[in-house]
């Protein structure tokens, strides 16, 4: 059984060597451990230092494509290299790579398809935003209460082939929703993380990240939970529309509705928009079935392509 650790990186010359050297090369139940570094257009010595530190595979984008695209390409590259289990980690030394054996144990035992290494030492700022994201994902999207933003995860070969990455910003939320939609078994294991002093490569500035991450989460909820998203919005609007409608009916019978036509307009508009949202939810759910057919076809194509490369 082969384990490949994928590391998507962008300008990580300060940390990449330490990350690679910390990865255990002997793990019970694993015949071979390899490291795959996917360089997302770094302009420093990341690639050179990764090679010197012992990376087995080096891939690169000639121009920066973003974390989500790099993760997706690294996942596929690992499958092409024959991975039976894939662990994705960050190149900033945020995670303790010595915990990889603990992370992959449920997959080796066939107890899970995906294992999430939840962080225990988040600073206050990141803890707040992580809780906000987790709240939205759990309450609105119906996900179990996981650390939805951690990148330290393990995937079985089948899970890696099936997962969809429906984002250009970050893969963290979209892959969890995709996994749940595909009925893959997920398990969470708490793992201590380290503080990272340098600025995040993903977060150029906090307001921009909140905006992009927020739209990313909402966009993926729309894709995977259309009825839950539009149904909730539509239900709220329908309820809000009832009061002005009842107000108009009351005054209509009391004094012929004189001077209260605005209640009729507001109420009927809210209820109409609410109804349209529910219709959109039903339409989105129908489109979701087409997406599932496409995902199944893509999975079979991937399986055939990988088989032909053996």
Amino- and carboxy-terminal Cα gap: 15 Å
CATH topology of the largest domain: Spore Coat Polysaccharide Biosynthesis Protein SpsA, Chain A
Instruction: Classify the beta-strand content into a percent band.
Output: 5-15%
Strand ordering within the main sheet: 3-2-1-4-6-5-7
What are the defining features of this structure?
single chain, 310 residues, alpha/beta, 2 domains, seven-stranded mixed beta sheet, 54% helix, elongated
Entry summary:
The protein is α/β, with parallel strands linked by helices and 310 residues long. It has helices at 16-22, 46-53, 67-80, 100-108, 124-140, 157-162, 172-181, 206-224, 226-255, 261-308; strands spanning 2-9, 32-40, 57-61, 85-88, 114-119, 153-156, 186-191.
Polypeptide structure, described:
The protein has two domains: 2-223, Spore Coat Polysaccharide Biosynthesis Protein SpsA, Chain A (Alpha-Beta Complex); 226-308. Strand 1, helix 1 and strand 2 form a beta-alpha-beta unit. The chain has helices at residues 16-22, 46-53, 67-80, 100-108, 124-140, 157-162, 172-181, 206-224, 226-255, 261-308; strands spanning 2-9, 32-40, 57-61, 85-88, 114-119, 153-156, 186-191. The longest helix has 48 residues, at 261-308. The chain has ten helices and seven strands.
